[in-house]
Specification:
With 262 residues, this protein is an alpha/beta fold. The chain is 42% helix and 15% strand. The protein has an eight-stranded parallel beta barrel with strand order 1-2-3-4-5-6-7-8, surrounded by five helices. Bound molecules: 5-iodo-2'-deoxyuridine-5'-monophosphate.
């Protein structure tokens, strides 16, 4: 099964896309399957936290529209740090409009973010729109990818079993740009060539006051099938984000090793 296979083996599968290979390789090089959600409110904090967690992460996840004072220079610094510390940048934009609109939105994001998240609510044509943006530039081909949201971590969300099934189908139709699915359980993703990204991870809390549900790093990797785990406040709001990132990184990676070795 997917969860028992190593990232190395999975990266070598014929159906694994170039961008997905790149992510698998990066996790192995850094021994990190930690994605940090830098949910902060100013550009200064964004750069400060990124500098601290950069050495420990495979993906930096942003909500750039929630951050004040972000300029071209901020995004350039972010890209420089991504190069220096070897991580990818993912804008958690959760795009959900018609193909044409999504294309306009993605034209901006594609310049600085390696990865982007999308809701499957509008269907396959939206993915086609993104694919067209990527295909327009030779340098982007194989260097840009999409995570599709198949499940949400929050209480009371409206996603049904049928929606999940149809989302998986779409992900298989656009395999050259879809690197994986954002989901909460190990039985959503059928193919070992796709990556399971799972948010809602915290060592200390089991929920927040607005419906977020947390699991600890062991549960999320061993029982829930996550390949890469997303940690936000557990790291960003710690007194020492670098130390917290290191702790999460080691716990998550050791659990991945445990998962694939027996
Ligand atoms: N996020 C979730 N749950 C989801 C999806 C995305 O929490 O189902 I899709 C995002 C929201 C936030 C991060 O940016 O992941 C989790 O942050 P905390 O660890 O601070 O809850």
């Amino acid at each position: 099964s997917r969860t028992k296979m190593g990232f190395n083996e999975r990266s070598e599968l014929l159906e694994t896309s170039k961008i997905t290979q790149k992510i698998f390789k990066l996790t192995l090089e850094k021994k990190s399957n930690l994605c940090v959600a830098v949910d902060v409110d100013t550009a200064d904090k964004l750069l400060d936290i990124t500098e601290k967690v950069g050495p420990y992460i495979c993906i930096l996840k942003t909500h750039i529209d929630a951050i004040s004072g972000v300029t071209e220079a901020t995004l350039n610094s972010l890209k420089l740090m991504a190069k220096q510390y070897n991580f990818l940048i993912m804008e958690d934009r959760k795009m959900a409009d018609i193909g044409n609109t999504v294309k306009l939105q993605y034209n901006k994001i594609v310049k600085w973010a390696d990865l982007v998240t999308v809701h499957s609510i509008s269907g396959g044509m939206m993915l086609k729109g993104l694919q067209e943006v990527i295909n327009e530039d030779k340098d982007l081909l194989g260097n840009r990818g999409v995570f599709i949201i198949a499940e949400l971590s929050c209480d009371g969300n409206l996603i049904s079993q049928q929606y999940i099934k149809e989302t998986v189908k779409i992900s298989e139709e656009y395999k050259d740009i879809v690197v994986g699915l954002v989901c909460q359980s190990d039985d959503v993703i059928p193919s070992p060539s796709l990556i399971q990204l799972t948010p809602g991870v915290n060592m200390k809390n089991s929920e927040d006051s607005l419906g977020q549900k947390y699991q600890n790093p062991s549960d999320v990797i061993l029982t829930k099938g996550a390949d890469i785990a997303v940690v936000g406040r557990g790291i960003v709001q710690d007194d020492n984000p670098a130390e917290a990132a290191k702790l999460y990184k080691e716990w998550l990676w050791n659990t991945y090793i445990e998962r694939v070795s027996n």
